[in-house]
Structure formats: structure tokens, C-alpha cells
Amino acid sequence: MYVKRVELTNFKSFGGTTPIPLLPGFTVISGPNGSGKSNLLDALLFCLGLAGSKGMRAERLPDLVNHTQSTRGRSTVEAAVTTTFDLSDELDLLNTLGKPEGEEVELASNQNGHTNGNGNGNGASETPNTEWSVTRKLRVTQQGTYTSNYFINGEPCTLTDLHEQLNRLRIYPEGYNVVLQGDVTRIISMNAKERREIIDEMAGVASFDRKINQAKDKLDAVKEREDKYHIVEKELIDQRDRLAQDRIKAEKYQKLRGELQAKEQWEVVIRYRQAARSVEQLQAQIQTGETEIVDLTTQIAAIAIDVEKTSAELEKLNAHVRSLGEEEQIALQSTLATREAELRQLQRQEQDLQTASRTLAENLARSQQEIHEQTQTLESLTQEQQTAETRDLATMRQQRDDAKQTLEVSREAANASAASAEAWVQEQTELRHQIDTLLTRLEPKRTEQAQLQERASQLARQIQEQTRSQQTLTHQLTEKQAEQTQLATSLEQATPQIQSIAQAVSAAEQEAQVQKETQTRLLNEQRDKQRTLDKLEAQSQAIQEAQGTHATQVILKMGMSGVHGLVAQLGRVEPRYQVALETAAGGRLGQLVVDDDAIAAAAIEILKQKRAGRATFLPLNKIRAGKAPSASTLRSMGGCVDFAINLIECDDRYWEVFSYVFGSTVVFQAMGDARRYIGQYRIVTLDGELLEQSGAMTGGSSGGRSPIRFGTVDAGESAEITTLKERLKVIDAILFRCEDALEKATIAHQKAMQHLTEARQQHRELQLKSDQVQTEIQRLETQQSQLSQQLQKSTQELTIAQTRLQVLDTEIPTQETQLEQLRQTLADLEQSQTHSEWQQIQLRIRSLESDLNQKELALRTVEQRLLQLDNQRQRLQEKIQQGQSRIQEHRTQQTGQLQQQSTLSNQQLEVSQHIAELQAALAALEKTLGSERQQRDRVDRQLRDLQTRQQQLDWQRGKVQETQGTRRTEVAALHEQLTDQQAELPDPLPEIPDPAPDLSQLQHELRSLQKRLQAMEPVNMLALEEYDRTQSRLEELTEKLETLQEERTELLLRIENFTTLRQRAFKEAYDAVDINFQAIFATLSDGDGHLQLEDPQDPFNGGLNLVAHPKGKPIQRLASMSGGEKSLTALSFIFALQRYRPSPFYAFDEVDMFLDGANVERLARMIKQQAQQAQFIVVSLRRPMIESAERTIGVTQARGAYTQVLGIKLPQSASI
């Protein structure tokens, strides 16, 4: 990607429309001063929105319009710049540009690359599909108003949209894509903090700052709500305290009223009892029965209490038994169940392995048995073949040879007698010769036919066996492939799960790392601030001891009786006199006022014991001041205010104390008035100058005033100490929450790691099984391929044999027909012969020929049998080899199974040992629970006995009550007399103390209670309910405050985490830029340099310095370097920033102006080297820079006041 073309229309010194094509690599723009060469870079800044008007050397944007156009009197003038990028090497990026929120856009096509020049277009230069263009138009009216619009590929857009698209192209507004003349100087002249902020922008610190500010805004909102709740809480506490007093009074009133009502009931009951005494004799028996019932009831109640106690004890024992063994037993049982499940799983695996081993062993034994049987058959066939070859074949051949020899002898004899019948013999001989010739041709074909028939039969059987084997292999292969497909699906499903779990592990680890870094940083800050606080507190305590305030604070904190306080606490002054009176009093403000000298002596003794320092005490019973001064003497003094004692407001009892403190000190308004009376009075001015009567004068800055002030309780803590304590308190809260978050993140990471390990283990097992199945599939495919080749070979051989047999089946019958015809002709000839001797000879010959044919047939039969035996041996050998291969595979599988079985046995042994330990622990736990169960059973039996006793007493009470019913019937008449009085009795009857109070005494108490109630009225009885409601609201508010506090702590932790991430991002950017700076500075200056933070512990609290060590010079900071060294150092810093955040193009504006020739050459080499990765457009007047460039653009300004551009052809490249 590179800038392909820049088109300027009425921009600054460019009039009309000037297209400037550019190429990748290193391009230099050169021309005379004032010719407008820097305006090209200003055009880039203007078009891409990378700088404001001042950054383009203009006061206002309208100043960028060509001044000739502005002076022509047009109503509106327009300047436009179009920058076109070539994205041919980043087509994927091209498709994403211009997509707000991921939507597609249409790109311009079939365009010529120039604007139409008449202003009726949309301002976009037409680009081919691989081009992406940006246009900015500036329209200025005669009134000076203007509008500025941006376009992307001809579509209007905002500056924000443009910067978003440029960010995708790695062109950053805060970056250093375009380096102007002042940028190098600005880096040199900026302070260290501004230089550090450049790294901040590169690291994206601003995004973290925004997040921190958002969190702080939320924190402020939470604080505001918390403050509101605290206000409401204070009001509720005040209301609750007020209601508490009313509640106490209401409770007391309610208690007295209840007591009055109870005693009124007592009065009714006592009157009823006095009236009932007359019938007590009649109810003696009833009373006796009632007593018995009461006794029984008491016993039942006692037993019920015992039952309740025993039940509670039993329940407690049950709970104890359950709690004693529940958690541990459940945990052990759960662990035991898990381990037993693992053991069962291992056993199942072992059983499956044993089953597979047995199957494999059976297959191995079957294969060995088959090989054994085939070997025996092979040996038998070999023996039979050897026997046939050594005995039968030799015998048959000998017999054939003998028959041939005998036939030859007979034929010689026939030839001897052939002279008598020469013609007949000649014809017979001719026929026999034809027959022999035909037999010579026919017999090999018959032998070949027999051999081919045997071979075809053998091949047919072999093909049938191979077909069956191939079907078996195909079935096995199909099963394995299905299993492999299932395993592949499982692996495919497991991979995203593992990735998801790995992402969760990474996220949890990242969260834990952030929390850990935040915790470490806060602990360091806590340690540093605690040290600072300890130091400040020690300094404060030392100051207090030096001023005497420490000892007084010790006495005040003890709360001794008779101690009134410090002198400063007991008086009040107007603010305008405070400085003067505090100066006049001096150290006496910190002296303690006590009742008498005994208290002072006791306090001094305490200070001695505690080694708390020294203090001055002013006992009220002993302190005496001098005579009160007369104010009349002061009236004639110019500038005099009054005596100091008269400006103090205090209780009368402390008058002597303040008279002692101030004496006859006079307060003046200013030093000039007071100087006239030096030596006559002790004088203090309103500004705090002190003039002693002896003539000594004290004054100056007021920064060292005593911390003791009028109206203050103590010396107080400094604002810095208070701030430190508040920060430490906040850090403690954040650390507590951070530890909780770190623990949660650690637990989440451990769980995720456990899940990841399990998932990976399962994935490895699936992968291992898949590899095994794949190996098995490859083996089966190899066997299938070999079998297919064998089948194809056998089929081809069978086809060839069958084809040959078809030929022989056609030829042999023809030749046999010819042979039969010739034999018939010979037979006819021989039958017509009358010579008996010849006939006998011929019969003898035919007999011998027949015997010879039989011998030869027998020989061919033996040879055919030998051929069959040889074919059978070959087939058996092939089967034996296949069986041995299967045995080898089975043994390899057995070895793997033995290893797996050994592994499973070790795992089972380990799990069994663990199970035994768990069972032992369970047995011990059961033993422990046994004694508790026995005790529980004993209490259970005791409870059943008590319940049985309770039932018996209840039955007895029922019998007594039944008897009482009979007795009450007898005294029913007596109760009628008490009916009227009984109607007045309260229901239920109150409990009356025994002995019952006297009636007259009770009536006296009732009158007293009524008077007390009347005296307490009015009483707010609603306070009882209001107090509870207020307390409930207060508790709810407290819960809300706790929630807000937790939310506030969470926000503080979030801020600290953002701070940690902010520091991490800055550190990464700083380290990268530092490494780049060291390498680039070494290249440019032949020296060494590095970046240096002013505060490495807190980089944001300080700045950034550029430290360089030019060759042959000591180490220097930027401020102490020469101009050229500063420029090289600043340029090294700029190159380091560019290398950290690379962009597709860079533009430099006379950055070599302060460098000498040698340094310009180094800079040119550096730019030429960097131009291999990005496009460089450099404005320069220096010869080394121009010579190093790949091409040069010449800029000049003609007499028409317009800038003109000219391309120059350089030796190493084509012209522009």
C-alpha cells in the first residue's frame, strides 16, 4: 500500500488542478525556498485531517485557498485536495474500508483518476477497483465564512469516520506519518512530561484514562448516593434516639398499667375467695381430690419435662451422631465411590482387554493350528511328490523306454519282412508316419489341455477364496472406517471445546495476573505510604514534644478529673485579632489549666512514669496575675487597639489564667505605630510582630507558627497525614477485595485448568484410539490392495488359461478326427493284407504301440499328478506365509495388550490401595460412631420408660377426676350461692402470690398505682411501634450502605486494575520504543543512547528524557547537546516511534536542515533502508538526500505565481 497520487486544486501556492503521481519507495521533493514544496505535505495533512490550520502554517483555514483565487471577486472560492492510495497488495483490507459497523460499500470503478475540473462533481477522484481515495473540499465565501467537507471514494463522511478508516490503514492522527519542520524542533524543545505523553498516545493510555474516568464518575455517583444515605441515616439515628426515650417511658407506663390491671383482678379474686371460705369444709374432699390431681398433674408435668429434656437430649445425640460423621463420612463415601467407579472402569477396561486378548489368542491358536495342519499337509504332499518323482516317475519312464525299445525291435523285424510287400508297406508306413506326426502334435496339446484345466480349476478355487477374503476385509474395513469417522467427529467436536476451555483458562489467567499485578502495586504503594506516614507522624510527634504538646495530649487523653484543658481551648477571639493574640501568648497557649496544685502534681508524676515529656500546669487555686492595666493610658497612643487581655472572651473563672498569659501586652495595628513605644510596653501588632519591653523585636514570615490555635482541641493532624491515612484506608479495602477477586480468579483458573487437562486427556485418548484405528485401516487397506492385486493376477491367469483352453478345445477335436480317420484307413489297409506273417508282425506292433501308449498315458498321469502336487504345495506355502504374517500381527497386538494390561494392573493396584485406605478410614469412623449410637440407644430406652410412666399417671389422674365428678355433683347446690360472685371473676384467673396479699393493703397499692399513672401522662404509646419501624428502616439503610460500600470498593478495584493495565501498556510501548531508539541512534550517530524515565516506579508522575552518548563524547541529555546532535537524537526518537507503530507511508519536511553533510548521508541511508518497508516522501535541499532517493520531484514557482512540478529522471529509476 502506498500513496499513488495527490491532486491539488487552488491549494495555497498551487493554482488550478495539479495532479502529482507518486511511486512506492524513496521520493525526494526539492526546489528553491518559497517555491511551495512544503505545501505538498500540507496538502496531505489537510486532506487526511491530520493537523489544524496552524499545523499547516496558516492562521485560519481560508488562508489555505490560493490567494489569486481569493482576489478575483468570486462569491465563493474553493480549494480541494484528493489523496489516492493504491491497495493492490491489500485487497482484503480494501473490502473492509468504508464499512460502518461492518456494512458493505460500493467502490468506484472504470474511472480516469482526475477530477473534471468544472466543480460539478462530488469531489472524489475516480479510482480503479484497487484504489481508495480521500477528498477534502474547502469553500470560502466573500464574507470570510467557510465550509469544509470530507469524502471517501466520493461519499461524504465525517472526520471521525475518516480517522476510523485511516486507523485500519495504519495511519494515525497522533502518529508521525508527516513530520514537519517544527516537529523535530518541538521534540527538542518540549519538556520531559510532554515527551512522555507521546509514548502515552502510542500505548493507547488515553483509552484506559477514559475507562478510569468513567469508573471515577460512577464512583462519584456512588459517593453522592452514599452521602445522601448517610444524611438519612443520621436523621434516622436522631429520630431513633428521640423515640428511644419515649419508648422507655411508654414501656414503663405500659408495665404500670399492666400491673394495675393485674392487681385489680387480684382484688376481685381475693374477694371471691373470702366469700368462698364459708364453703371450704364442704369442699374438703374435693380439695383432697384436687390435691391428688394436682400431685398427679405435677408428676405428669415433671415427667413431661423429663420427657422433653430426654427428647432434646436424644435429638441432640442424633444430631451429634449425624454431624459427627456426616461431612467426613459423606466425603469419604463420595471419594470411595469415585475411586470404586474408577476401579470398576479399570476392571471393565481390563475385562475388555482380556476379552480382546482371548480373542486374539484364539485367533493366534487358530492361525497356528491352520499353519500346523497346512505344514503337515505340505509335508505329506512333499513326501508324496518325492515318492512320485523318485519311484513312480522313474518306473514309468523305464517302462515307457522298454516299450519303445520293444516296439522298435518289432518294427525292425517288420521292415525286414517288408520287402515282399513293398507297396503295401510303403502305404502303411506313410499312414503310420502321418499318424505319428499327428500324435506328435496332438499329445502335447492334450498334456497342455490337462495342465490348463487343472490350473483353471486351481485358479477358480483360489479366486473364490480370495473373493471371500476380500469381502471379509471389506466388511472389517467398513467397520473400522465407520469407527474412525465417529472418532474423527468426536475429535472435531472436542477441538472447539478444548479451544473454548483454553480461552477460559487464558482469560482466568489474565484476570489473575492483572489482580496479582494490582495487588503487588498496591502493596508497594501501601508500604511506601505507610513509611511516609510513619515518618510524618514521627516528625509530628517530635514537633509536639519540642513544643510541649505531646505531654499535654497524654494528660488530656487520660481524662483526669479536674483537668480543664489547654489555655487555647478556654478562650475565644475575633479572627482579626487571632494572629496577634496567639503571637503574644506564645507557648503559654499549650499550658494545661487544672483545678488545684494537687492535680498538677499528680499529672507531673504520671508524665514521669510514662516518660511522656514535660508540661506546664496552671492550677486555678494558686495562679495569680498582676494588677489589671488601666485603659486610659492607651487613649493617647496612635494606632493602639487595646490591651490583649481585653480582647479575650472567656469564663470569669479563667480570667486570672489569661491575665497571667498576656500580662500587660498591648496590641497595635502596625509596626510603624508600635515602634514609638518600644521599651514602655510589651507590644504585639496585628500582623504578628512582637516588640518586647526590653527592646527585642521578633517578626518575619508566619510559616513557622505554632500548630496550637485558639478554639482548637488539639494540635491536629496535617492535611498530608490525613490524606495518607485516607489513602491507606482505601488501599486496605481495595486489597481485601483484590484478594477475594484474586482467589476467585485463581479458583476459576484451577477449575478451568482441570477441565482443560481432562478435555486434553480425553482428546489424547481419542487421538490415540483414532491412530490405532487408522493403523488398522491402513493394514486392512494394504491387505485389501495386496489381495486385489492377487485377485487381479489370478483372474488374468484364469482368463488366459480359459482362452487357451478354448483354442485347444477347437484344435484337439479336429486333430483327433483326422487321427481317427488315418487309423481307420490304416486298419482297412491292414485288413486287406493277406500275408499272415505281416499281419502278426503288425498285430505285435499295434499291441506294443498300445502298450507304449498306456505307458505314456500313465507317465503323463504321474507327471500331471506331480504338477498338481506342486501347485498344491505352492498354495499351501502361500497360506502358511499369510498365516505367519497374521501370527506376527497377533503377537505384536499381544505385546501392546500386555503393556496396556500391565498399566491397567498398576492403576488398579494404586486405586485398590486408595480404596483400602478409604475403607479403613470409614471403618474407623464407624467405630467412632458406634459408642455414640449406643449412648443414643440408651437415652432412647430411657425416653420410652418415661413415656410409659407418663401414660400410667395420666390413667390414674383420669380415675381420680372421675371420682371428683361424683363429688362435685354432691356440692352443686353449694355452688349456686357463689354464682353471682363467680360472674365477676376474670377469665382466665390471674396468678396470685402465695400467701395472698391483704385486701386493704392491695387497695392502697391500687390507689398509689393510679396516681403514678396520672403523673406520667401524657405518654406517646406510638413510640413503641415507631421505634421498631425506625430501627427497621435504619437496618435496611445500613444494608444499602454496605452494598454501596461494596460497590465503591469494586469500582476502586476496577480503577486500580485499569491503572495496572495502563502501566503495563505504557511499559510495553516504552520498552519497544527504547529498543528501537537504541538501534536507530547507533546507526545514525555511531554512538549509543537510550530513553530514561524520570520516575521509573511511577512513569506517569514524571517525564521522559533522551539520553545519548555520541561517539567520542560523554553521555549527555538532550538539553546539553549541540544543534545537530539534538536533531539526530530527535530523529532517532521519531524513527523509533514509527518503527513501533509502522505506517504505509511517511513524509518528512526538511528534517535534515540542521545536519552536516556526513549526518545527512547517514539519515539518507536510514530512510533508504526504511523505504523497503514503507513509502517515504522527503522534502529536502541537501545533495546526499537527493542522490540517495529513487526519484526526485522538482518544485518551482513561475512568474504566474503558481507552483509547478517537474519530474527528474535519476540513473537508478524511471522518471515520474
Automatic annotation (TrEMBL):
SUPFAM superfamilies: P-loop containing nucleoside triphosphate hydrolases, Smc hinge domain. Residues 561-678 form the SMC hinge domain. Residues 272-413, 519-546, 1020-1061 form a coiled coil. Residues 109-132, 880-901 are annotated as: Disordered. ATP binds at P32, N33, G34, S35, G36, K37, S38, N39. It is found in: Cytoplasm. One of its GO terms (molecular function) is DNA binding. SMART domains: SMC_hinge. One of its GO terms (biological process) is chromosome condensation. CDD domains: ABC_SMC_barmotin (cd03278). NCBIfam families: SMC_prok_A. PANTHER family: STRUCTURAL MAINTENANCE OF CHROMOSOMES SMC FAMILY MEMBER. Contains large globular domains required for ATP hydrolysis at each terminus and a third globular domain forming a flexible hinge near the middle of the molecule. These domains are separated by coiled-coil structures. Belongs to the SMC family. This is Chromosome partition protein Smc. It comes from Phormidesmis priestleyi ULC007.
